[in-house]
């Protein structure tokens, strides 16, 4: 299903939950809506489902208007599946009855599936690896198994759009990783358009084709996970996704002089104009390297955290603390003086070409 959101605004009294959101979703895409608590993610999903109408703007699905201030097509008249954080299974139905239910009652079940409801139920049970639990009741299932049933139920009737609201947030860390994989596999298998709400950046980066990053009801940036991570367009995106250090300094002839030190020059090919105008370079913790001596900025190790593959250092440079990931084993101790440099490969990044992203080369004049 293709979706177009145009100037979508939603106000609850004086609260603007969404402010003029424009976005498009292509058929079969996996879109993550990412942002902190209260930024309007659930409101956007509820508008897409048809539970709410916009105060301004409109939503089109496959070129048909489905939501506008004066009218909205309700959820039961849209061909969508939904998965929530709370699973929302019916307590009195077995696993296979939960999956069969939409096949019996959903308005949009394709006739090819209606004719083979039992076979389709078994097929979907297999898809989520629950064939041997078909007769179990919800209280006899683990959290991960319940979430699989919820997923199976949502995709059974082959919806054109699958909406998921923080579906993994009540699962433990290991199960979350497993279910991410499961959801990706189901998406590949069904080719359904997915809109997935999360506040977890690693979930969005790992699963989505494109991410819509939101803040205070507005879209901050839309792009592929790689673009969002490597080429943030605003301070919020840089710090919310991947915890970039926002290094102050000045740009001269496409070269950045951190902390106003014109003896140190950093070249990073692609930095958004937003940062260049503000005299800032966003640098990911892994884009820095630490040395005992060299042509960089001098700092002092404030804290060291062993993380397995990397060591996370907090380095005090001037009055700012920067986060630096350095491959383990750690070579630097708390209190030690170090030199912070931009890792070599950062200046050799290939030119990025994604059409909708407004990225310029730092070698162009500003
Ligand atoms: N029915 C409502 N009435 C009044 N205000 C609401 C209503 N629903 C949402 N809001 C407000 O709109 C804003 C966005 O809420 P929303 O639930 O969409 O955020 P969210 O990003 O999904 O947050 P979370 O991650 O905490 O679920 C919040 O300030 C919220 O308090």
TrEMBL record:
Keywords assigned: ATP-binding, Cell membrane, Membrane, Nucleotide-binding, Translocase, Transport
Keyword set includes Protein biosynthesis: no
Listed Gene3D superfamilies: 2.40.50.100, P-loop containing nucleotide triphosphate hydrolases (3.40.50.300)
The name this protein goes by in its record: Iron(III) transport system ATP-binding protein
Organism: Alteribacillus persepolensis
GO MF annotation: an example: ABC-type transporter activity
One GO CC term, this protein: ATP-binding cassette (ABC) transporter complex, substrate-binding subunit-containing
Short name of one Pfam family: ABC_tran
ABC transporter domain mapped to chain residues: 3-241
Lineage, broadest ranks: Bacteria, Bacillati, Bacillota, Bacilli, Bacillales
InterPro entries in the cross-refs: AAA+_ATPase (IPR003593), ABC_transporter-like_ATP-bd (IPR003439), ABC_transporter-like_CS (IPR017871), ABC_transpr_MalK/UgpC-like (IPR047641), Mo/tungstate-bd_C_term_dom (IPR008995), P-loop_NTPase (IPR027417), Transp-assoc_OB_typ2 (IPR013611)
């Amino acid at each position: 299903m293709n979706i177009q959101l145009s100037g979508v605004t939603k106000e609850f009294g004086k609260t603007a939950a969404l402010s003029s959101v424009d976005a498009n979703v292509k058929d079969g895409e996996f879109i993550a809506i990412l942002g902190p608590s209260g930024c309007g993610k659930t409101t956007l999903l509820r508008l897409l489902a048809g539970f709410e109408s916009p105060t301004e703007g409109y939503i089109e699905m496959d070129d048909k208007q489905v939501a506008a201030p004066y009218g909205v097509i309700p959820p039961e008249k849209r061909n969508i599946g939904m998965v929530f954080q709370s699973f929302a299974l019916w307590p009195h139905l077995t696993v296979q009855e939960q999956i069969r239910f939409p096949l019996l009652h959903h308005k949009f079940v394709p006739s090819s599936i209606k004719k083979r409801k039992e076979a389709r139920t078994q097929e979907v049970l297999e898809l989520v690896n629950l064939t041997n639990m078909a007769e179990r009741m919800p209280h006899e299932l683990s959290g991960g198994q319940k979430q699989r049933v919820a997923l199976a139920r949502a995709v059974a009737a082959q919806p054109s759009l699958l909406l998921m609201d923080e579906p993994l947030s009540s699962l433990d860390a290991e199960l979350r990783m497993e279910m991410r994989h499961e959801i990706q596999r189901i998406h590949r298998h069904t080719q359904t358009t997915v809109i997935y709400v999360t506040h977890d950046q690693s979930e969005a980066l790992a699963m989505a084709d494109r991410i819509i990053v939101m803040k205070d009801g507005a879209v901050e940036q839309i792009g592929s996970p790689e673009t969002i991570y490597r080429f943030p367009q605003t301070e919020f995106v840089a710090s919310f996704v991947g915890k970039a250090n926002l290094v102050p300094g000045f740009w001269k002839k496409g070269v950045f002089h951190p902390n106003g030190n014109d003896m140190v020059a950093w070249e990073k090919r692609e930095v958004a104009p937003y940062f260049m105008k503000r005299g800032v370079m966003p640098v990911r913790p892994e884009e820095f390297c630490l040395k005992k001596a060299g042509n960089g900025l001098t700092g002092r190790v404030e804290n060291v955290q062993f993380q397995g593959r990397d060591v996370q250092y907090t380095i005090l440079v001037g009055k700012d603390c920067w986060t630096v990931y350095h491959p383990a084993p750690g070579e630097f101790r708390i209190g030690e003086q170090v030199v912070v440099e931009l890792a070599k490969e950062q200046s050799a990044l290939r030119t990025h070409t994604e059409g909708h992203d407004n990225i310029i080369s730092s070698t162009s004049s500003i």
